[in-house]
Amino acid sequence: MQKTTRKMAQHKQIALVAHDNCKPDLLRWVVEHKDKLQGHNLFATGTTGHMLSKETGLEITSLISGPMGGDQQLGALISEGKIDLLIFFWDPLNAVPHDPDVKALLRIASVWNIPVATNRASANFLIESPMLDKEVDIEIPDYNAYLSART
Fold this sequence. Notes:
By secondary structure, the chain is of the alpha/beta class. It has 7 helices and 7 strands. Strands 4-3-2-5-6 form a 5-stranded parallel sheet. The protein is globular.
């Protein structure tokens, strides 16, 4: 597939997701980085979003719960260019009923070339990146060219 670019604005659209066993770790991480996060637009799956908003006071757009379709909602937002980074504290040692949705979310993030953190260490690297607060061009699939070639 051909490639094109998409401009990520200076103020990023950041998705925050955590499996149940990892919610306390994500909350601790968000509290530690609250000053940086509040300069961006935050999204989260339902349970995680409500917990983070209540505990931190941050304004977070909460989707529905991950197992109820929230992971798929985030995937749709990523494919529409409405999410710039995905912070997903997932539990690789504990299978969840919606594992196919989790895999699809991580796959779509890779397809659309957005930065993904799946644990505390990678999340720390992303939040400390000098690119976080800058306008950034990323390479993405040129879906319009793909469609044009099919007609």
